[in-house]
Every structure is written in structure tokens, then in C-alpha cells.
């Protein structure tokens, strides 16, 4: 039975320096801190109570959480994964509280990255109270490192319900809804999160953040530019422990009935139609 993912829900990051990462997530990225603790902190970027978090640990151990519709779908997902030989564990009470979800299961994707499927991410009555005027409207997609994009694409599109929107060389952009993509599979010799995308309200927010990031000497690793694939205008920058963050605006929505996947060449103009060149190893051609 196909695993029906509704949406991407959260990322959980680890860092040796929670204080520095918190400073970045609030003063630079602009997220709202929630559940402040000494060695652990959650953040929100939209109506959901936790869309990102930092805790003390090894930065290579990232987690991406996806939302499933209900407990029955979660149980079926666990059965499907176990039948395929995946090791599945259920989240404890404490872990569920940290994520603000009612239930979740955890397993490793075929490349070895930790993935969670969760039910009922809690919604806060008000939207996120951003820590600065970043214009963020919400957490939107991740890039996942993939040791074998063909194999991993099979997992996300055949075992789960993702659909290919576009491919840049061997890099597929996968959608879970009408939004052009929620997952990008980035060929690399490792696993886990390659980048975290937040949508912003307008191109002014992208430019304003570009200026602020430059003033704070945050490394800009791509852009400002425009993706021909999703149509989004973007800027990418580097956060703590080398994690890449992206702000973008204007990601296209696709019509499920009529949309056909497209193949782009693996070259700079497939990543940016304005002529910017990525300073990101895995996107360099
Ligand atoms: O938005 C996109 O199309 C896109 C393409 C390549 C890589 C990305 O991170 C993207 O967000
Ligand atoms: Fe992206």
C-alpha cells in the first residue's frame, strides 16, 4: 500500500553549540523560538508549533518529519516499511511533545538519513511571531542528500506518493501537493539534509535579507537568482555547521492533471535563469 504523505512538517538539527545556532535561527533566519531549554530549542515559521529545532549533538544527524493524515495511515506506513525490511520505531511521549505531534514513527531512508512520519502537527492559534522582519510565510521544502537518486526517487515516488515535477541532470524535484516541490534529491556521497527552504512574502524580502546577510557576513552561497524549474526567486546562505538555508518566493503550483515532468541539463542556467552560479559543491557543474 502506498504511503500517503500530505506535507513536509519539520526539520530537527543537531549542533555542538546550541547558543550560537539559536542566535542564528532567531536574529538571522528570523524564526520564533518556542520551548526554550538549555541544550534544546524549537522554532516556528508558520502556524505550526515546531517547524525546526536545534539540540546538542552531531550536525550530520539530521531529521526530516512529514505529515500523514491519521493514525491508520501511520500504522499502514509502518507495516509497509517493515515488510520492505526497514527498521521502524515509534516516538516516545517525550519525543512527541518535543515535536508537537500526536504520534510519529522513525526510520532511515535508503541513503541512511533519518525520516519521521507524524500525525497531527499542532497548530498555534496565531501565526509565528518572527524574530525579525524576514517576511517568512512558512517552512516549505528540503534538499536531501542522496547516495543514489534513482533508488531514492523510487522510494519517494513508488513506496510513497511523491511525484517528479522536474529533473536537473540527476537531481529530481519531488512534489507532495500542488506546490512544485517539497523534496529535492541532491546527489552526494552522504545522507541527511542538504538545504532548508523558507518561503517569504515578496522579492523585496529576498533582497532585504540579502543585504542583512551580507552586513552580518553570513556566507551567501547562491543568488539572488531565479530558478527556471519552480520559477521561485531565491537567495541561499550558510548557517551553523555548514547547513544551507534558502529563502524563496513565487514557487509555482502545478496542475496534477496536465503537468508533465521536465528534464533540465545539469548546468548553471538550469539552477538560475539570472546567471548566478551556485557556490555549493553538489550543485556545481
Ligand atoms: O526551486 C527550485 O526549482 C529549485 C531548483 C534546484 C534546487 C533548489 O533548491 C530549488 O529550490
Ligand atoms: Fe530549494
Automatic annotation (TrEMBL):
Pfam family, one: Glyoxalase
Keyword Oxidoreductase: yes
GO MF terms, alphabetically ordered: 2,3-dihydroxybenzoate 3,4-dioxygenase activity
Oxidoreductase among keywords: yes
Enzyme category, top tier: oxidoreductase
Stored SUPFAM superfamilies: Glyoxalase/Bleomycin resistance protein/Dihydroxybiphenyl dioxygenase
Keywords from the UniProt entry: Dioxygenase, Oxidoreductase
Taxonomy, superkingdom: Bacteria
EC number(s) given by UniProt: 1.13.11.-, 1.13.11.14
PROSITE patterns attached to this UniProt entry: VOC
Gene3D superfamilies (alphabetical): 2,3-Dihydroxybiphenyl 1,2-Dioxygenase, domain 1 (3.10.180.10)
InterPro entries referenced in this protein's UniProt entry, alphabetically: Glyas_Bleomycin-R_OHBP_Dase, Glyas_Fos-R_dOase_dom, VOC_core
Occurrences of domain VOC (ranges): 7-120, 138-250
Protein name: 2,3-dihydroxy-p-cumate/2,3-dihydroxybenzoate 3,4-dioxygenase
